[in-house]
Amino acid sequence: MRNSYIRYKVEAWDSLQHLFKVKKINDHTLHFLAAFESKLDYSRLKKSIAVSAEAFPLLKCRFNENGRRPYWENCSFTADEILTLIETEDVDNAVKRFLVSEVDAFTGPQIKLGVIRNTKADTLVILMNHMLCDAAGYKDYLYLLSSIYNNIGKNANFHPPVSGSRRLSQINQMFSLKDRMKILFSKNDMSAHDPARFQLEGDLNNPLIEIRSIPEDVFLGLKEYAKRHNATINDMILTAYIRTLYKTFGYVFAIPSTVDLRKYLPGHKAEGICNLCTNLTCGIGSDIGITFEETLLKVRDSMNKEKSSISCLKSISMLEKVFDVLPYKLAESIVKKSFKNAPIAFTNIGIIEKNRFYFDKLKIKNAYMTGSVKYSPYFQLAVSTFDNKPVLSVNLFGSETDRNNISAFLDQVVLELYGV
């Protein structure tokens, strides 16, 4: 029998992610893949998942909005209902099918894991509901699962502490009253976006994840180039993206770029697994420059200016207040009408830390994370990095023509980087 009497609070970002799906901006599934050179201990992995769900109970819940306010309803899902073993010699196709499957918020659980196994090795695929966390929170879960797996190999009774607060207000508490007032009265119109959009056919029955991997030697060269120009890898990839968009559309426009607000917290660490992000806007004006270097310097300066401002906090501060104070349906209606998502965006998921994500001594050949799958006409380039190997990705519910166009676009972004 499910313990449905246990309920957990739905936070403001949970509700916003839900609206993204309602408004057909994107589904709310985060994707992760790790390919190993040998096999995991399946029974230990299953136990690790059960322990992780005790530390982060929302994994065992379903989203319920039948009451006056929505809530996470405990359904006590077991590890057997969360984890699937698929034994096949056609690993690639099995991985592709599992990777694009969705997590259903209303039925739960909020996470799905698949071990795709051939006679020699395993590929681990993990899918999580984006309503529970952003990319940084997702990485926190990956590190938690890894830690549990490694620890219970030595101590079968190992249990980590329960995940803490998921509220956005943990960010606001870091600022003085004076700074909070600055945030409140700042001008930060995050609903104004350029109308440029890709001509996508879309296909709700065909989720696509297109990726491009950048070899370690190329990545290290890019890092050195960025360092010489007092720029970041994020600036480099954003520059390649903007230059490719310019070639596609014939003009320059501002690009929203996700920022992790944990940078304002002690140790850059949130109290719990949650959503703590917002957007910065990279606007370099109408002149892209001639060379990659010229564009990079414009991107660097724009991002440095954006990162030094606290005005980006206004939207999430208002979001939490709206959902805290107003009746849920009214708050949902206001946010649904007022919040507009950019047709074209960028997100850097960041580094998946090799020294925090590992399973005993099993060698990981490659690993990457992607965001949610967009509905046409929305388009987002994402990048994640593991072991000095970045992976660029674009996710879309699209046709095979869309896949071909996305593939060609990604090739151009990579060519920009290789040309440095």
From TrEMBL:
Gene3D superfamilies: Chloramphenicol acetyltransferase-like domain (3.30.559.10), Nonribosomal peptide synthetase, condensation domain (3.30.559.30). SUPFAM superfamilies: CoA-dependent acyltransferases. This is Condensation domain-containing protein. It comes from Lacrimispora amygdalina. The lineage of its organism: Bacteria, Bacillati, Bacillota, Clostridia, Lachnospirales.
